[in-house]
Amino acid sequence: MTLYAHITGWGMSAPEKVLTNDDLAQMVDTNDEWIRDRTGIERRHIAAPEESSASLGAEAAIRALKVANLHPRDVDLIICSTSSPQHIFPATASVIQDRIGAINAGAFDLLAACTGFIFAMNMATQAIRGGAIRNAIVIGAETLSRLVDWNDRTTCILFGDGAGAFVLQGSDEPGGVISSVMRSDGSGGDLLCLPAGGSAMPATPQTIADGLHYIQMNGREVFRFATRVMANASREVVDRAGLQLEDIDLIIPHQANLRIIDAAARGLKLPMEKFIVNLQEYGNTSTASIPIATVEAAEAGRLRRDDKIVFVGFGGGLTWGAVTVIWTGPFPSAKPINFQQQRRLARIRSWLRRLVRFLEGLIWGRRG
Ligand SMILES: CC(C)(COP(=O)(O)OP(=O)(O)OC[C@H]1O[C@@H](n2cnc3c(N)ncnc32)[C@H](O)[C@@H]1OP(=O)(O)O)[C@@H](O)C(=O)NCCC(=O)NCCS
């Protein structure tokens, strides 16, 4: 039986278009100094019209598969964590499954706001450890720019678009995800929410006129909540792993606000050097922020085999959670896979399947 779920691949994708604080100052009553001081954010990436949570997520997933050198047909499960899905349904994960040609995978979305990637990692880990699957892709993908009120200076300065993905693979070798914490407090759901567009408040001309399809947030309350739970969840997850905080080499936190990360560092009595921070470049990409920060840390050579890493997140719901990971890196594999070819094949396969469905419809339609 498979006992451990290792992170063997990682990938990210961010839109090319960048929106600086100075650009925002042209749009709302704000300025670069205020945004840097209060959040640490300098720029964020914004999706082009042809980009979406699925296109960014698929790109990140392919890159993660490349690092792992895992063939798309060997993926058993795709979990896409997102609060800005393509549609309410079908799941964004299904769109990604089709685009990357993961023909043997089950795919579903998970919504736990900015904590979603942590929850998704934990779900994939449990499926691997339970023996139900061997290989999973976990994706965090967001295009929050589509859900932000660009006239609301209290929210539009914070968020950005992007996607990140991990490949998780089972093995008997000890390591990988070794402990987890998952928590929610629905009593605080109204502190960070998107009121309309769901079944409680379907879209009407009035909901649109009232701006209820935009993110609404009580910044101060969320700030207070975040500083409390980041340190607590980190402490608890390290304890569950049977480790001490001093054993932890690196913390990769949700990238919402530099002051929140700083408060967590002080609460944990750990130096800021142990925290990966890249929110200055991307802003808060919600559930994508942890894998994006991980990819940049890996590319900067900050992740070494056997490093003990805590991933910790918080967000709407309210939700918060953490996992402790012993860093592995790619499993040894034989022949490099031609991913360009796999992408082309996935496109052709998808097109053929649509064509067959169309022709079947014609035949059945005529018979009917
Ligand atoms: C949003 C946030 C940056 C605001 O910072 P803050 O220090 O709490 O600021 P406040 O809300 O107390 O506002 C202070 C003043 O700045 C003003 N202000 C708010 N946004 C502003 C902006 N973009 N530019 C300039 N001034 C701004 C306010 O109107 C207020 O003015 P007032 O004192 O005249 O009323 C901060 O609360 C935060 O980061 N919260 C957590 C949000 C978060 O991370 N959400 C995602 C969770 S996953």
List keywords for this structure.
368 residues, 12 helices, alpha/beta, four-stranded mixed beta sheet, Peroxisomal Thiolase, Chain A, domain 1, five-stranded mixed beta sheet, binds coenzyme A
TL;DR?
This protein is of the alpha/beta class and 368 residues long. It is built from twelve helices and 13 strands.
Notes on the structure:
- The chain is of the alpha/beta class.
- It has one domain: Peroxisomal Thiolase, Chain A, domain 1, CATH 3.40.47.10.
- Helix content is 38%, strand content 21%.
- The chain has twelve helices and 13 strands.
- The strands form four sheets. The chain has a five-stranded mixed β-sheet, sandwiched between helices. It has a four-stranded mixed β-sheet with strand order 8-13-12-11, sandwiched between helices.
- α4 links the parallel β4 and β5.
- The longest helix is centred in the last third of the chain and has 29 residues.
- It is globular, with a radius of gyration of 21 Å.
- It starts with a strand and ends with a helix.
- The site of coenzyme A has 20 residues, from α2, α6 and α8.
Structural topology:
Blueprint: E1 4-13, E2 18-20, H1 21-25, H2 32-39, E3 43-45, H3 53-68, E4 77-81, H4 92-100, E5 106-110, H5 116-129, E6 135-142, H6 153-156, E7 162-171, E8 176-184, E9 192-193, H7 205-209, E10 216-217, H8 219-240, E11 250-253, H9 258-268, H10 279-282, H11 289-299, E12 308-315, E13 319-326, H12 339-367
Parallel strand pairs: 4-5, 4-6, 11-12
Antiparallel strand pairs: 1-7, 2-3, 6-7, 8-13, 9-10, 12-13
Helix pairs in contact: 3-4, 8-9
Bound molecules: coenzyme A.
Coenzyme A binds at residues 30, 34, 38-39, 114, 153-154, 157-158, 192, 217, 219-220, 222-223, 226, 256-257, 284, 315.
